[in-house]
Write a structure and sequence with these properties.
- This is Protein ApaG.
- Pfam families: DUF525.
- By secondary structure, the chain is mainly β.
- It has one domain: ApaG domain (Immunoglobulin-like, Sandwich).
- The strands form two sheets. Strands 3, 4, 5, 7 and 8 form a five-stranded antiparallel β-sheet that branches.
- The chain is elongated.
- The relative contact order is 0.30.
- The mean pLDDT is 93.
Length: 125
Amino acid sequence: MSESARMSIQVQSLYIASQSSPEEERYVFAYTITIRNLGRTAVQLLGRYWLITNGNGRETEVQGEGVVGEQPFIAPGSEFQYTSGAIIETPMGTMQGHYVMQDEEGETFNIDIPVFRLALETHIH
């Protein structure tokens, strides 16, 4: 792993009751992700890939450019934080995936996003 690949990913998820309709099998979750650059060179987040699994084991794949409409540059020692959302059909599920990053030399690499739970009892501490 190159020096540029030293990244830290933290995730917090939260159930959004006001936007959910359990009787319609619609459960809305928000998640806030903090990406820290622990390396010595700047990186740019080019894209993302998500695997979202609901409580019944049904998987949905999502991929695209950037996050929340941005392809942020993250300088050494700094971080980028954003909040996005997911809608699943069950009161519990998981998300995992990776970000596609590019270093200053133009090399691309993936940073894994660890599995995190989407659940009604999820709270931000």
